[in-house]
Amino acid sequence: MILFLQISLIVLSVLLVLLVLLHRAKGGGLSSLFGGGMQSSLAGSSVAEKNLDRMTLFVLALWVICIVAVGLLVKIG
């Protein structure tokens, strides 16, 4: 069980970093690297940004749950 939680923690950590880097910042962020034309079409759409925010928060919640579970299992065992 601890091995599964540790592997999922690593996967969620990498996914969380990628999701945070995809967010549009003042300078465009890494999302501007995937094509300027696509950025201009997504810049006016707040739906894409809202969905990215929701996915980031969902992955963050799973990440926190995994950290707490690993901490509890290490404390018990």
From TrEMBL:
Protein role: Involved in protein export. Participates in an early event of protein translocation.
Family: Belongs to the SecG family.
Lineage: Bacteria, Bacillati, Actinomycetota, Actinomycetes, Pseudonocardiales
Protein location: Cell membrane; Membrane
A Pfam match: SecG
Bilayer-crossing regions: 55-74
Protein name as it appears in the record: Protein-export membrane protein SecG
Annotated keywords: Cell membrane, Membrane, Protein transport, Translocation, Transmembrane, Transmembrane helix, Transport
Keyword Transport: yes
Protein's UniProt keywords contain Transport: yes
Membrane topology term: Multi-pass membrane protein
Chief location category: membrane
